[in-house]
Design a protein that fits this description.
Elements (H helix, E strand, L loop, with lengths): L2 H15 L5 H18 L10 H13 L12 E5 L7 H7 L4 E6 L2 H14 L4 E5 L2 H4 L9 E7 L4 H8 L3 E11 L3 H7 L1 H6 L2 E9 L8 E8 L13 H4 L4
Parallel strand pairs: 1-2, 1-4, 2-3, 4-5
Antiparallel strand pairs: 5-7, 6-7
Helix pairs in contact: 1-2, 1-3, 2-5, 3-4
The chain binds S-adenosyl-L-homocysteine.
The site of S-adenosyl-L-homocysteine has 16 residues, from strand 2 and helix 6.
Length: 242
């Protein structure tokens, strides 16, 4: 149905990430596009509605996180503010051993992910309906994830308070950012150290045909997050740690 955009995804994953997607994985991406378009006609899941654009800006962009994920192993990854499942769902498709938790405060988007997981037959995803600030104070999530991803969620200082508390010591937050990555990260240096993190690097990522560079900001959890963080839901944004 969406052959052309899925063929392009296969080529681009190979060219940009040296990633060989299997026929089964490509079929899953094709199914996901069908579901996204179908549900998007009824609810606002994504502003991106062309299959080729979905493949590039949702799937390939999500998969750039693989540049910093180890190749194998049963790691736990949390995707904060996952929305319609990005970057978490594409990562779950290509890494069957990765246990992916998809967290969002909005229930209706999570219903989409639940349906997508069922149709695609993904048995390595789990859905959590919560505010990141609340989950960060819950021992079920606090300090338990090897990797925490977030794309298009918050500016860096607030985002750190929504991600670092749930990261395991030795684990890493991977924040997907646009052209303001360096500036935002600079502004978050106090938040990063206060919450037990340390900047590990900022990688530039280029997607074919897109002029603007994208960045992966990597923050390693090296210490403990003090008990008073995260603060009440909303506080990290209203009153960022600076
Ligand atoms: N990551 C997705 C969605 C980005 S939109 C993508 O890149 O396509 C931002 C999402 O973050 C929304 O779905 C919103 O509900 C969620 N969100 C924002 N702040 C949050 C918080 N504090 N806790 C949980 N989810 C949050």
């Amino acid at each position: 149905m969406f052959n052309k955009s899925i063929d392009a995804l296969a080529r681009q994953a190979q060219a940009v990430l040296s990633l060989e997607l299997s026929q089964a994985q490509l079929a899953q991406f094709e199914q996901l596009t069908g579901l996204l378009l179908d549900w998007n006609a009824r609810m606002n899941l994504t502003g991106i509605t062309e299959p080729a654009e979905i493949a590039l800006k949702h799937y390939l962009d999500s998969l750039t996180v693989l540049k910093v994920l180890p190749k194998a192993g049963r790691r736990r990854l949390l995707d904060v503010g996952t929305g319609a499942g990005f970057p978490g769902l594409p990562l779950a498709i290509v890494r069957p051993l990765l246990r992916v938790t998809l967290l969002d405060a909005t229930a209706k988007k999570l219903r989409f992910i639940e349906e997508a997981g069922r149709v695609l037959g993904l048995d390595n995803i789990r859905i959590v309906h919560a505010r990141a600030e609340d989950a960060g104070r819950d021992d079920a999530h606090r300090g338990t994830y090897d990797f925490v991803t977030a794309r298009a969620v918050n500016r860096m200082p607030a985002l750190m308070e929504c991600t670092l508390p749930m990261t395991k010591r030795g684990g890493m937050v991977i924040a997907m950012k646009g052209t303001a990555a360096h500036e935002e990260t600079q502004a978050a240096s106090k938040a990063i150290s206060t919450l037990g993190g340390e900047l590990a690097g900022i990688d530039e990522v280029r997607l074919p045909g897109l002029e603007k560079a994208r960045f992966l900001v990597m923050v390693r959890k090296v210490g403990k997050t003090p008990r008073r963080y995260p603060r009440q839901a909303g506080a990290p944004n209203r009153d960022p740690l600076v």
